[in-house]
Task: structure prediction
Amino acid sequence: MTPELTYRLCLTLSAVLFAVGVAGVLIRRNAIVIFMCIELMLNAANLAFVTFSRHLGVLNGQAVVFFVMAVAAAEVAVGLAIIVTVFRTRASVNVDELKLLRR
Result:
């Protein structure tokens, strides 16, 4: 397989993963599933960064991926804590019911 075909396949996979993540965020009502779809979109962006970095022969994209993964880890910690707290108070993680939390 030629390198150009490999890059195209990786970018196509990245686009498909990102599209699945967007569809999941727009369609699903469960906060945990929405959270997982956001993580899927971040990983799709990471795959695109690494693909472009490798194609161009520079390490800038891989450095950006390192920082995106660090931010994603912090997001997971804070996001799951919020979801668990809401579940304890409301006994549901349905985002339609979370609209009731507004004052």
Observations:
- The radius of gyration is 17 Å.
- The chain has one domain: 3-94.
